[in-house]
Each structure stands twice: as C-alpha cells, then as structure tokens.
Amino acid sequence: MPRAPDPREPLIVASFELAAERCEDLTPLVYARLFREQPEMEILFWRDQNHQIRGEMLTRVIQAILDFVGERLYASTLIQSEVVVHEGYDVPPEVFRIFFRTVRDAVCEVCGPDWTGEWDAAWESLLADLDYYVTHPDQATTAALA
Ligand code: HEM
Q: Which of 75, 70, 126, 119 is nearest to 100 (CA)?
C-alpha cells in the first residue's frame, strides 16, 4: 500500500529550496558548523583531503531526508545500514543525530528571517523520527514500521 503523504514533506522541501536559491553549496557551511561545535569530528575525515567525501556524503544525506519525508523507499534502512557501516570509520551513532541537526541548522542559517515556525516544527519532528532509526539500527526490529 502506498504511504499516506507526510505533511512535513512540502515544508522540508520548501526549506531546502529556499536554501538552494540562496546558497550554491551547503557543504562548507555544514561541515564548518559541525567542526566548530564538535571539533573532534574533523579528524574522522582525515582521508578526505580534497573534501569530495564530505560533499558526496552530504548529498546522500539530503537525498535520504527527502526520501524519508517522501516515498520512504530506502531512507530508513539506509540510515540503519550507515550507522553500522560508519562504525568502521569510528563514527559513533550519536554523531548521526548531531549531523542531521547540523544540516537543519545550516539550512535555517541560510534562510535567515524567512525560516518559518512551521518549518521549524516539521524539522524538529523529522529529526526525532530520523533519530529513531539511528538508535534502532536492527532492521528486524523496525520492519513492521517500514
Ligand atoms: C545517513 C547518514 C549518512 C550517510 C548516508 C553517509 C554516507 C556516506 C558515504 C556514501 C560515504 C562515502 C563517500 C565516498 O567515499 O565518496 C561516507 C563517508 C564518510 N562518512 Fe558518512 N554518511 C552518513 C553519516 C555520517 C556521519 C553522521 C558522520 C560523522 C560526522 C559521517 C562520517 C563519515 C566519514 C568520516 C567518512 C569518510 C570515510 C573515509 O575515510 O573513507 N558520516 N558517508
């Protein structure tokens, strides 16, 4: 059965669209903000000398967020798998929550005074839902929710 439309989708999409109009590439903003708040995370990217991985990863994360509020074809299982895969990069699961929040904060910063209360509420609830999959990476236990 197709999923019922997620009322957060138009709000999250609108926030990304406005951010994209105002900022060609969110990558430097997101990672500068992340490393300012969590300096110990920068070392995790030691292999990424030309910042390609940072950009690729952010693109995948934004696509996953859009899928999560849209058709949710893959986002929840992707998040669960990435939590496990990233253990190999020494990325602790709790950093996922920080990263998703940092994406929201960067979008909010770029939107400035045009950021709305509705967008804020949609993002807060989305962040809580994303975090559920970070803290429950075992797909067998979440299969019924998919
Ligand atoms: C759903 C969330 C995430 C997704 C979809 C994702 C996806 C990816 C992908 C696709 C790559 C490989 C990129 C490439 O080689 O071109 C990657 C690498 C990496 N990710 Fe993530 N990632 C996520 C969350 C995070 C978080 C929260 C952190 C911590 C800040 C993180 C840290 C890293 C690091 C350090 C690498 C580089 C590994 C290396 O040295 O090769 N990732 N990620």
A: 126
pTM of the model: 0.94
Decide if pLDDT at 28 tops 90: yes
Q: Does 6 contact ligand 1 (Cβ within 6 A)?
A: no
Which of 53, 59, 63 has most ligand 1 atoms within 8 Å of its beta carbon, as the pocket-test mutant? 53
Query: Ligand 1 centre and the CA of 108: distance in Å?
Result: 22
Go through the domains of the chain in sequence order and give each one's CATH number.
26-138 (1.10.490.10)
Q: Which amino acid is at 12?
A: I
Report the pLDDT averaged over residues 85-94: 92
